[in-house]
């Protein structure tokens, strides 16, 4: 079997092979976790240790599950050594003891052990290295998890704690055995005494960074296959693991060496082997370098093959001929075309908030509710809250946590009591920190929160709440309701999206006979639709069918959002010159035609063909796209959103949006308006007044200032260059040392936004340090297809995945178009 075939096998087929051939016992040493966390999740949080532990726990469980699903029966995992405890601070020791305890009490781990039928053991001499209080606590929790999993039979995991030197322990075990039985113990008996049960010799030993074997006493036979990943352990993925399994099964343990010259071909093979050794006779596996400023050791390339040398020489020739850039252009164009083909229904991330609402429908949609409840149990964060792990946004955590604990309490499962208690504890912390969210409240927060608190009070989750806290929220709620026609909410009003805020007053506030959209939803919102089923019309078939169609390993914040996704993907690619790619242009034309068919004369366009309200944001960018493509659309459909001092996003809006006004500026410029027109002047005055520190902007639709600031720069180029220049400088000043950008930590999305603005600024003839662009391209090239953290704001945080990807590809193509990225696209070769 070839490696490519092995890589493409279904996971069940690989599991069958491993069960038949091994490895059966695998040792995996998790190394470099803090380094991985710092590199991938740069954070400003004060509770660094808790956030780090929660993140690494989640990633560790994911990788362990991959090991077990591929057929490994027993996993031995050394995690803490006395050397590390002595080397680092006392605070690290406290964190280490907490981390060990989490392996035995953390609900994510316990659920994982139960779901995969994993029996748990702990070995090592940790009692010698922690204080009595800590040891007593650890002994209690370790014994608890052993009892809990004692009857589990499918898999085993053994956590190693301070198991670096077992000589004294093994000696004492031998003495004890002899005193009891008057005979020396066998190796099998010693293994059983040390590990708590018999563990077969290790077949496969995996670690990271420096090659060395440690902390697997008595079960290291010297015949195990050793593998040491260059990158820290949490980077391990399925492809790399299958590479290792393939090598272990088909290369290392498959055949014996043949030292013969039986035929001419075999003699040629010996000559090739000699050439290989001559090429590498000074190479030593395990040699590395230490980065001076970071103090971090990492391996350096050592082994070469003749094919690689030839490949490098041929590649150099192609570079000189200019072929390489064209080759990568083709690949980048393929990625853009694939993205355009995928564009349509709206691709979204799931949220705890909407999943919690569906979890309450166990009487009406039992299968969906059961999945939602299990999802909530598996996705509680390390501090007890629900919501997005990162970026951290307290408004998101508050509504998600409240919705989750209400759903779990109403379900009445006694096993959820601890989850609910931890959620309540975390809730208070996030409520106190709401002021730290610079982009302000999530959509409908001041209307939804009072309704959630009332529901929590009704089910006994909260003590009576001080009116000083609730009264301002209730006033805002009443004011917003007063803006709605006749004081009622129907499907034409954007407030329908937050219909669950009606609480027990639903039928007094909602226009019940005119609230459902054509697809059976309330404003395309799963939470609002679930509320409708719970409080307005239980078992109504159309909204029930909508809810039952939504499950995608959780529930998204809204679905579908077809026109929203189509318009913004096209807008990103409108920044590029793609006329040389006929297939791309043809797909763009298809999307443009669909947008035009959904344009409502006199109104504009909404974010879905199934959504009744139109909005200025989608209307503005779609106008620009259709206008430039020659479609007959009227700028008056954009101008209808004009207010006294700015343009509003929706009718009856109470909080203004900078990004909406910036996007209307795109539309006005496309329609031929110039700086002297009063509408343009109104927007320029508004956005100048909204600038923070005269450098950047924040907005209510996105938590990162880089999103709206990037779009503002693009809209201002050639119109108000001084405003744009200050923001360009702010971007350059806030570029991270790794080359990327990010408000809380570096992300591909924010880096792409900054590159779009900076590259278009440079394209317009302005100076930008080329090194800043090249550093950003290098970082983005290494992080193209990683998960995109949710940074967009609705009722909670979400990520419109295809839209984000289109911004990244657009930035890369811009770099190519201005000749700055010819050598920086190795990652596009897929």
Describe this structure in words.
The model is unreliable at 308-330 and 822-830 (pLDDT under 50). This protein has 830 residues and is of the alpha/beta class. The two termini are 22 Å apart. It has a six-stranded parallel β-sheet. The protein has a two-stranded antiparallel ribbon with strand order 7-8. A two-stranded antiparallel sheet has the order 9-10. The protein is globular. It is built from 34 helices and twelve strands.
List the helices and strands and how they pair.
Blueprint: H1 3-8, H2 11-21, E1 25-28, H3 33-40, H4 48-69, E2 74-80, H5 82-87, H6 90-105, H7 107-115, E3 118-123, H8 132-149, E4 155-161, H9 167-181, H10 187-195, E5 204-208, E6 225-229, H11 238-252, H12 264-279, E7 288-291, E8 296-299, H13 306-321, H14 323-342, E9 350-351, H15 352-359, H16 366-378, H17 394-411, H18 417-432, H19 445-458, H20 467-483, H21 506-509, H22 526-536, H23 541-548, E10 555-556, H24 562-574, H25 582-597, H26 616-628, H27 636-639, H28 658-670, H29 678-689, H30 705-716, H31 721-733, H32 748-763, H33 770-782, E11 792-793, E12 797-798, H34 801-817
Parallel strand pairs: 1-2, 1-5, 2-4, 3-4, 5-6
Antiparallel strand pairs: 7-8, 9-10, 11-12
Helix pairs in contact: 6-8, 14-25, 14-34, 15-16, 15-17, 15-22, 17-18, 17-19, 19-20, 22-23, 24-25, 24-26, 24-34, 26-28, 28-29, 28-30, 30-31, 30-32, 32-33, 32-34
Percent in helix: 40-55%
* Average pLDDT, all residues: 87
Q: Give the DSSP E fraction (strand runs of 2 or more residues).
A: 5-15%
Q: Rough shape? A: globular
Number of strands: 12
* Structural class computed from helices and strand pairing: alpha/beta
What is the rounded distance between the termini?
A: 22 Å
The neighbouring-strand order within the major sheet is 3-4-2-1-5-6
Largest sheet properties: 6 strands, parallel
Q: Total helix count?
A: 34
């Amino acid at each position: 079997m070839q490696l490519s075939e092995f890589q493409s096998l279904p996971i069940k087929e690989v599991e069958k092979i491993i069960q038949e051939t091994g490895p059966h016992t695998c040792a995996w040493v998790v190394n470099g976790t803090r380094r991985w966390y710092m590199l991938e999740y740069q954070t400003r949080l004060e509770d660094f240790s808790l956030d780090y532990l929660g993140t690494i726990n989640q990633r560790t469980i994911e990788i362990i599950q991959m090991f077990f699903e591929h057929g490994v029966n027993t996993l031995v995992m050394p995690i803490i050594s006395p050397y590390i405890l002595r080397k680092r601070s006392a605070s690290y020791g406290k964190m280490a003891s907490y981390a060990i305890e989490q392996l035995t009490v953390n609900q994510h781990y316990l659920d994982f052990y139960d779901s995969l039928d994993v029996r748990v053991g702990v070995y090592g001499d940790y009692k010698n290295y922690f204080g009595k209080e800590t040891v007593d606590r650890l002994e209690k929790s370790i014994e608890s998890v052993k009892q809990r999993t004692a009857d589990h039979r499918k898999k085993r995991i053994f956590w190693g704690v301070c198991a670096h030197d077992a000589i004294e322990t093994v000696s004492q075990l031998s003495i004890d055995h002899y005193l009891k039985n008057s005979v020396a113990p066998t190796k099998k008996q010693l293994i059983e005494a040390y590990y708590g049960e018999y563990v077969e010799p290790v077949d496969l030993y995996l670690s990271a960074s420096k090659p060395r074997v440690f902390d697997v006493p008595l079960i290291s036979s010297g015949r195990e296959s050793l593998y040491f990943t260059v990158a820290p352990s949490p980077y391990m993925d399925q492809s790399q693991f299958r590479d290792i399994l393939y090598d272990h099964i088909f290369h290392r343990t498959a055949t014996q060496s043949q030292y013969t010259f039986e035929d001419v071909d075999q003699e040629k093979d010996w000559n090739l082997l000699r050439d290989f050794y001559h090429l590498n006779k000074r190479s030593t596996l395990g040699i590395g370098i230490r980065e001076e400023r970071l103090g971090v050791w990492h391996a350096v390339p050592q082994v070469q093959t003749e094919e690689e040398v030839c490949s490098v020489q041929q590649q150099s020739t192609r570079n000189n001929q200019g072929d390489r850039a064209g080759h990568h252009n083709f690949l980048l164009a393929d990625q853009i075309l694939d993205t355009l083909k995928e564009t349509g229904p709206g691709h979204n991330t799931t949220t705890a908030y909407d999943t919690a609402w569906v979890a309450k429908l166990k009487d009406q949609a039992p299968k969906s509710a059961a999945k939602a409840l299990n999802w909530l149990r598996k996705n509680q964060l390390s501090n007890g809250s629900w919501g997005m792990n990162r970026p951290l946004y307290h408004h998101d955590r508050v509504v998600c946590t409240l919705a989750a604990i209400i759903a779990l309490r109403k379900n009445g499962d006694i096993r959820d009591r601890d989850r609910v208690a931890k959620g309540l504890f975390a809730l208070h912390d996030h409520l106190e920190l709401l002021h730290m969210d610079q982009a302000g409240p999530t959509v409908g927060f001041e209307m939804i929160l009072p309704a959630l608190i009332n529901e929590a009070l009704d089910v006994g989750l909260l003590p009576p709440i001080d009116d000083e806290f609730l009264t301002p929220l209730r006033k805002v709620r009443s004011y917003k309701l007063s803006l709605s026609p006749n004081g009622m909410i129907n499907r034409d009003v954007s407030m329908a999206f937050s219909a669950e805020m009606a609480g027990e007053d639903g039928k007094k506030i909602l226009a019940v006979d005119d609230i459902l959209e054509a697809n059976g939803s309330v404003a395309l919102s799963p939470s609002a639709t679930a509320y409708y089923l719970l409080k307005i019309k239980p078992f109504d078939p159309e909204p029930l069918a909508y809810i039952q169609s939504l499950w995608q390993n959780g529930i998204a914040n809204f679905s579908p959002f077809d026109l929203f996704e189509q318009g913004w993907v096209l807008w990103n690619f409108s920044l590029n010159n793609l006329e040389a790619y006929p297939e791309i242009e043809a797909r763009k034309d298809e999307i443009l035609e669909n947008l035009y068919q959904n344009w409502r004369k006199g109104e504009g366009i909404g974010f879905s063909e199934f959504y009744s309200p139109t909005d200025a944001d989608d209307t503005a960018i779609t106008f620009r796209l259709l206008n430039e493509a020659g479609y007959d659309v009227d700028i008056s459909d954009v101008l209808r959103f004009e207010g006294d001092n700015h343009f509003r996003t929706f009718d009856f809006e109470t909080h203004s949006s900078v990004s909406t006004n910036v996007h209307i500026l795109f539309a006005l410029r496309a329609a031929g308006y110039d700086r002297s027109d009063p509408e343009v002047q109104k927007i320029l005055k508004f956005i100048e007044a909204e600038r923070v520190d005269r450098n950047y902007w924040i907005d209510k639709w996105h938590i990162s200032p880089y999103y709206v600031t990037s779009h503002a720069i693009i809209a201002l180029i050639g119109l108000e260059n001084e405003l744009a220049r200050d923001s360009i400088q702010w971007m350059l000043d806030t570029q991270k040392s790794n080359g990327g950008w990010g408000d809380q930590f570096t992300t591909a999305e924010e880096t792409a936004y900054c590159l779009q603005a900076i590259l278009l600024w440079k394209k317009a003839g302005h100076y930008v340090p080329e090194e800043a662009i090249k550093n950003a391209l290098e970082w983005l090239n290494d992080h193209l297809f990683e998960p995109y953290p949710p940074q967009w704001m609705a009722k909670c945080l979400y990520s419109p995945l295809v839209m984000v990807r289109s911004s990244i590809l657009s930035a890369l193509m811009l770099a190519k178009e201005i000749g700055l990225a010819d050598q920086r696209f190795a990652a596009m070769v897929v």
